[in-house]
Design brief:
The structure is a single chain. By secondary structure, the chain is α/β, with parallel strands linked by helices. The chain has a single domain, classed as 3-Layer(aba) Sandwich (Rossmann fold), CATH 3.40.50.150. It has 6 helices and 7 strands, in the order H-H-E-H-E-H-E-E-H-E-H-E-E. Strands 3-2-1-4-5-7-6 form a 7-stranded mixed sheet, covered by helices on one side. Strand 1, helix 3 and strand 2 form a beta-alpha-beta unit. The radius of gyration is 17 Å and the shape is globular. Bound molecules: S-adenosylmethionine.
Length: 190
């Protein structure tokens, strides 16, 4: 009984420390980013910490590629499913699939075809390290070029990718209108 309570408390504290809250990437910022960065028809995107799914749906609509969102919060995930249902009802002409997966990003097994990974400040760098290591493991099994796209990146994420991984920064798109130095997109490539 005490062990059970302790275990639940431990899990709650872990989530409070490492999993960040929902906030959507503004669509006008995505518009600016995609003036300078494009997906190709063979690409497959995963949004880690997809929230209500708006980024995945935006990209599906704009590039017509398969998209997936991974979300750990049950209520937020269910909202993503509802948004997906309404969206698909109005976009039957796009055949590429849209999937939302309920679970922790760090437990998600990256699929061999997935090659574009999006993060808007979803979790601590501790969790990000695990997710990046899963991506690299998948790349070692199925060799391919992959891009990690960071929106509103923290210096910890940047330092980790630069110093501890083979990913290299290939693009930076700032959003000068906001006057916020963190308001930018960074693309890292392997
Ligand atoms: C800042 S929001 C970004 C939402 C979306 N990607 C966007 O850009 O509009 C981060 C989301 O990550 C989710 N999240 C936090 N930790 C997570 C984890 N370990 N695995 C999956 N999702 C997580 C949160 O519940 C939240 O919905």
């Amino acid at each position: 009984m005490i062990d059970d309570i302790y275990d639940k408390l431990h899990k709650w504290m872990y989530k409070a420390m490492h999993y960040y809250r929902y906030e959507a990437t503004p669509y006008d910022h995505l518009d600016m980013f995609f003036e300078e960065y494009q997906f190709s028809s063979g690409d497959r995107l995963v949004d880690f910490g997809c929230g209500r799914g708006w980024v995945a749906l935006y990209i599906h609509n704009r590039f017509q590629i398969p998209v997936k969102g991974v979300e750990v919060d049950r209520e937020t995930y269910e909202q993503a499913l509802k948004n997906r249902a309404v969206y698909l009802e109005n976009h039957k002409h796009i055949s590429a699939p849209v999937h939302f997966h309920y679970g922790a990003a760090e437990d998600y097994k990256v699929e061999p075809e997935e090659n574009r990974f999006y993060f808007f400040n979803p979790f601590s760098v501790h969790v990000f390290k695990k997710v990046t290591s899963n991506i690299l493991e998948s790349v070692m099994e199925h060799r391919r070029s992959v891009d990690i796209i960071l929106y509103y990146p923290t210096p910890e994420y940047e330092r980790f990718l630069k110093n501890k991984t083979p990913f290299r920064l290939v693009k930076q798109v700032s959003i000068p209108e906001t006057g916020d130095e963190y308001d930018k997109f960074l693309v890292y490539r392997y």
